[in-house]
């Protein structure tokens, strides 16, 4: 389906600033701005699952929302299957909708409480594909079978479903648009572990069945590792490390990735604070000039505090933005 | 009355039926409904009723008293029949009031939705225009509008509608702003819907109840305003009958013939009162918060309705003993059995972890200890909570209050929700100290500072003066922990204290809690869904499923050799870092609904080892070794045999 081997997603120099501008119709003092996503370059080949990991406020959701066109980037380009969709971002999400869809974190609140499931799922079929009633019914039946949902659910309202069922409905709605790329924003973090695995396995199966490309965002390292081919770690608006899923937590090069891997609670590992007890994120309104992680980093030197490390190739398909990689 | 009209079978289901039932339950609203219904009936039947001509003057018979021959309510200053004028006038006033309400609701809601949905400059311009409208006293504005347009009923209607637009616009804008950023709106965008379509199909159905509520509470007001304008001679023009106009004309003879003014006045009173009663009823029945029972003030402790005797105290009471504790939520006809007999104990200085999925009852168990389950709808229906052997369910409220936050303290999941947003964190800690101990302010402050240092908050002096929103999530949870420690409690009940935090912060907070526990010898009841966290933090764990403990024992033993099939499978579901790309284990099916628990083992429908015996009778939580208890007929490992060997 992709024209001449273009990657599913190619973004370059993507930036997003929130706030800023001036008050009083452009004549007042400049307002503070937050640089939520900075200098992100990413290429996702067709058929890959790219995991994105990071803590709250690192910019991973902002990146995802730019990718599906819900918000416009401040700078940079977004190419989906070789087509430049940057200009449509934030203005015409439907242009994205046919190729790339989004799965939300909170499955219940992503469904309109006053619509039946059928009404919810019909929308993309009507608006994006202009299907007639019979074609719609056939397509819905096909998708519902694919996500293991009973057909009588179609006439019910969202509040009647458990989180796991609602998330499957969310997946069904995304698939109804017949996209080739799915952006999954914490798709299982609102679910219980026993249900989480059901949904994750379903996602893996659907990927093979429909030949999808995934961008999988999560704060749970183990989940990301279990489903991804490659993983990118974000910190303070930037990608700080990118490597194969099998390598990145086993042999982290960036000290932040190492900290993340050490912090995940594991049965049988003694409880020790992995870093100084008071470490916090830098102030986003006054970002430090050098590496944003320097204040928390055990390997930080003066150079780290002054000079921002380049995101560079460390060999073996491993990239990191660090002056002193581990 | 409308409730009776709905067919009972259809009325008992669906949102409309639920609304009508709730509405009819409100006696005052039903009374208002009946009164207004009678008035409406009278007005609708006006053309066929044997009424006198409302315009026919009969000067010699002016100001006849009520119950005069031929004039049931007497006559006015021109000898016209008051009853006839009252009925026709009521019709006019009602029609104008309702029309004005509809017009201002439509225009006001449209403005509110557009402003709230688009936000930014659109919102700013529209709402500033609305503010300008509101800057004038409303009656002056109405007078000015009528003065500009000229007196008359239609102009009065326009004036009343216009002055009420801001009320709708502001109300609806507030609701829309909340909805416009909901995920389902984003989903609709991605599904290719245009903004107009999103407003009509996604936003409007969700604000409609609010519009109806706003309308039902203002319609009476609008009838009153219309009457007011007519009273001033700016509404309906004589000789047309209208309640306000009749009142105004009757005013001239108020002393000599009060009935000419009193009768229309009484009618206005009846209409506005009944409309307002109905409005209140509609609001109460439609508002989801009120429907969930927010109207009823939660009690200071969970309601106790213990059937039968409290179980006898254990021979060796621990610090905390829960015995066969049963807590349920009574929601109308549904009874959700959140806890169906929970027995556990916490020894001094020990850390017991309660693990379970959402809906397993782990948080209800934690809240039941100090009677903090919201009542209504929560009720404790059996068992005992013993603190050092003393039965707290039978204890007076004062005793419970003396223990809360003093001997037994809580740490909750979201410190932003549990800290008061308008008080400085230092003041909140000081308050927690002084509630239980009479100490001078300065001493309490010193103690608060010491605690903030103990939970390793940097710059503790400065942080004392901060408000909760100025702290990061991790810092807030440290404040929550400091507050739990103020009175050196014997037991801390921590309900998912790290769930809302990032992993690196979670690691810091867990390490802090572990240190504090060691230093101060405090026992912890730790509620979580995360096996990794209990595995690192707790001495013993209890696994809960559908309101019961299914397995309990020392952490290493339970995690190393889980005996209950649920425990084993749940542990298998937890993905572990470093295992690479793989298929994850899942448990098929869903947990049972707690208002319809199956007989026997609640896990049997999802269990591969279940046999017919598993689905019958009660399966006891029985000790299998000296330290482990299990509620299963077909355990995964034979624990007793292992021990004998």
UniProtKB/TrEMBL annotation, chain A:
Predominant location of this chain? membrane
Q: Does the keyword Nucleotide-binding apply?
A: yes
Query: Where does it reside?
Result: Cell inner membrane
Looking at the record, the residues that make up the ABC transporter domain are 9-261
One MF term in the entry's GO annotations: ATP binding
Keyword tags: ATP-binding, Nucleotide-binding, Transport
- One Pfam family cited in the UniProt record for this chain: ABC_tran
So what family is this one in?
Belongs to the ABC transporter superfamily.
Could you tell me which InterPro entries the record lists for this protein?
AAA+_ATPase (IPR003593), ABC_transp_ATP-bind (IPR050319), ABC_transporter-like_ATP-bd (IPR003439), ABC_transporter-like_CS (IPR017871), Oligopep_ABC_C (IPR013563), P-loop_NTPase (IPR027417)
State whether keyword Nucleotide-binding applies: yes
Name of the protein in question? ATP-binding cassette domain-containing protein
Which residue windows are coiled coil? none
Q: How does it sit in the membrane?
A: Peripheral membrane protein
Q: Which CDD domains match?
A: ABC_NikE_OppD_transporters
Automatic annotation (TrEMBL), chain B:
Instruction: Return the InterPro entries for the record.
Output: AAA+_ATPase, ABC_Ni/Peptide_Import, ABC_transporter-like_ATP-bd, ABC_transporter-like_CS, MetI-like, MetI-like_sf, Oligopep_ABC_C, OppC_N
Q: How does it sit in the membrane?
A: Peripheral membrane protein; Multi-pass membrane protein
Q: Which residues form the ABC transmembrane type-1 domain?
A: 90-279
| Compartment(s) of residence | Cell inner membrane; Cell membrane
Entry keyword set: ATP-binding, Cell membrane, Membrane, Nucleotide-binding, Transmembrane, Transmembrane helix, Transport
Q: Carries keyword ATP-binding?
A: yes
Locate the ABC transporter domain: which residues? 320-571
The record's section on SMART domains has: AAA
Q: Which residues cross the membrane?
A: 28-52, 94-118, 138-163
Recorded hits in NCBIfam families, A to Z, give: oligo_HPY
Q: What protein family is recorded? A: Belongs to the binding-protein-dependent transport system permease family.
Name of the protein described by the UniProt record:
Dipeptide/oligopeptide/nickel ABC transporter permease/ATP-binding protein
- Per the UniProt record, the source organism is Paralimibaculum aggregatum
Please name the taxonomic classification of the source: Bacteria, Pseudomonadati, Pseudomonadota, Alphaproteobacteria, Rhodobacterales
């Amino acid at each position: 389906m992709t024209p001449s081997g273009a990657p599913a997603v190619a973004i370059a120099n993507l930036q997003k600033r929130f706030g800023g501008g001036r008050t009083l119709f452009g004549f007042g003092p400049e307002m503070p701005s937050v640089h939520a996503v900075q200098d992100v370059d990413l290429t996702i080949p067709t058929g890959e699952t790219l995991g994105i990991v990071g803590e709250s406020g690192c910019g991973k959701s902002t990146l995802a929302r730019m990718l599906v066109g819900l918000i416009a980037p401040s700078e940079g380009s977004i190419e989906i299957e070789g087509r430049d969709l940057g200009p449509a971002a934030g203005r015409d999400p439907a242009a994205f909708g046919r190729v790339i869809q989004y799965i939300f974190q909170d499955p219940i609140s992503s469904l309109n409480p006053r619509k039946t499931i059928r009404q919810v799922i019909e929308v993309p079929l009507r608006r994006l594909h202009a299907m007639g009633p019979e074609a719609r019914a056939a397509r819905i039946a096909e998708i519902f079978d694919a996500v293991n949902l009973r057909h009588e659910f179609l006439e019910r309202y969202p509040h009647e479903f458990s989180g796991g069922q609602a998330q499957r409905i969310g997946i069904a709605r995304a698939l109804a648009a017949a996209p080739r790329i799915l952006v999954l924003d914490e798709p299982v973090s609102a679910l219980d572990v026993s249900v989480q695995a059901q949904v994750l396995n379903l996602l893996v199966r659907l990927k093979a069945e429909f030949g999808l490309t995934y961008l999988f965002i999560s704060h749970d390292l183990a989940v990301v590792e279990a489903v991804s081919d490659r993983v990118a770690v974000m910190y303070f608006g930037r990608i700080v490390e990118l490597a194969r899923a099998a390598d990145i937590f086993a042999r982290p090069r960036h000290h932040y990735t190492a900290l993340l891997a050490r912090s995940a609670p594991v049965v049988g590992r003694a409880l020790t604070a992995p870093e100084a007890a008071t470490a916090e994120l830098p102030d986003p309104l006054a970002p430090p000039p050098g590496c944003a992680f320097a204040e928390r980093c055990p390997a930080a030197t003066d150079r780290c505090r002054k000079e921002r490390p380049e995101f560079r190739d460390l060999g073996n398909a491993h990239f990191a933005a660090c002056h002193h990689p581990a | 009355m409308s409730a009776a009209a709905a067919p009972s079978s259809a009325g008992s289901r669906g949102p409309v039926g639920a609304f009508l039932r709730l509405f009819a339950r409100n006696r005052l609203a039903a009374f208002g409904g009946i009164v207004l219904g009678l008035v409406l009936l009278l007005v609708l039947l006006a053309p066929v009723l044997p009424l006198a001509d409302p315009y026919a003057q009969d000067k010699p018979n002016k100001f006849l008293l009520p119950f005069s021959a031929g004039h049931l309510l007497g006559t006015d200053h021109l000898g016209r029949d008051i009853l006839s004028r009252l009925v026709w006038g009521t019709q006019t006033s009602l029609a104008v009031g309702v029309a004005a309400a509809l017009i201002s609701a439509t225009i006001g809601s449209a403005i509110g939705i557009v402003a709230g949905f688009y936000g930014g400059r659109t919102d700013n311009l529209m709402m500033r225009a609305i503010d300008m409208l509101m800057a004038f006293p409303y009656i002056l504005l109405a007078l000015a509008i009528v003065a500009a347009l000229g007196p008359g009923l239609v102009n009065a209607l326009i004036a009343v509608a216009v002055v009420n637009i801001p009320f709708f616009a502001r109300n609806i804008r507030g609701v829309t702003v909340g909805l416009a950023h909901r995920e389902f709106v984003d989903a609709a965008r991605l599904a290719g819907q245009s903004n107009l379509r999103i407003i009509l199909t996604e936003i409007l159905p969700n604000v409609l109840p609010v519009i109806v509520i706003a309308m039902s509470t203002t319609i009476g007001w609008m009838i009153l305003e219309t009457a007011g304008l007519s009273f001033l001679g700016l509404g309906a023009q004589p000789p047309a009958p209208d309640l306000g106009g009749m009142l105004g004309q009757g005013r001239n003879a108020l002393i000599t013939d009060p009935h000419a003014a009193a009768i229309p006045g009484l009618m206005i009173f009846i209409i506005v009162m009944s409309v307002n009663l109905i409005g209140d009823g509609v609001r109460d029945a439609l508002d989801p918060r009120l429907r969930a029972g927010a109207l009823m003030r939660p009690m200071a402790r969970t309601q106790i309705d213990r059937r039968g005797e409290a179980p006898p105290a254990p021979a060796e009471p621990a610090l905390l003993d829960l015995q066969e504790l049963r807590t349920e939520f009574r929601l109308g006809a549904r009874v959700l059995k959140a806890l169906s007999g929970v027995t556990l104990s916490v020894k001094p200085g020990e850390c017991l972890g309660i693990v379970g999925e959402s809906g397993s009852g782990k948080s209800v168990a934690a809240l039941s200890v100090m009677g903090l389950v919201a009542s209504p709808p929560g009720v404790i229906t059996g068992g005992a909570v013993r603190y050092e052997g003393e039965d707290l369910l039978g204890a007076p409220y004062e005793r419970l209050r003396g223990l809360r936050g003093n001997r037994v303290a809580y740490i909750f999941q979201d410190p932003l929700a549990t800290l008061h947003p308008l008080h400085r964190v230092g003041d909140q800690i000081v308050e927690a100290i002084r509630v239980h101990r009479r100490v001078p302010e300065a001493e309490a402050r010193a103690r608060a500072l010491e605690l903030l240092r103990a939970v390793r908050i940097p710059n503790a002096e400065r942080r004392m003066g901060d408000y909760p929103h100025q702290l990061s999530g991790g810092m807030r949870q440290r404040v929550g922990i400091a507050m739990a420690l103020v009175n050196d409690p014997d037991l801390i009940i921590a309900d998912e204290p790290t769930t809302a935090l990032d992993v690196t912060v979670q690691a810091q907070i867990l390490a802090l809690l572990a240190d504090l526990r060691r230093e101060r010898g405090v026992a912890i009841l730790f509620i979580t869904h995360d096996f990794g966290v209990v595995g690192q933090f707790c001495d013993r764990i209890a696994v809960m499923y559908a309101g019961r403990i299914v397995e309990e024992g020392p952490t290493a033993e339970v995690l190393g050799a889980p005996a209950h099939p649920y425990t084993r499978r749940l542990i298998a579901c937890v993905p572990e870092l470093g295992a690479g790309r793989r298929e994850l284990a899942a448990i098929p099916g869903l947990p049972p609904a707690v208002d319809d628990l199956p007989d026997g083992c609640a896990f049997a429908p999802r269990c591969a080892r279940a046999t017919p015996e598993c689905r019958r009778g009660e399966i006891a939580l029985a000790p299998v070794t000296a330290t482990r208890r299990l509620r299963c007929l077909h355990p995964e490992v034979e624990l007793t045999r292992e021990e004998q060997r």
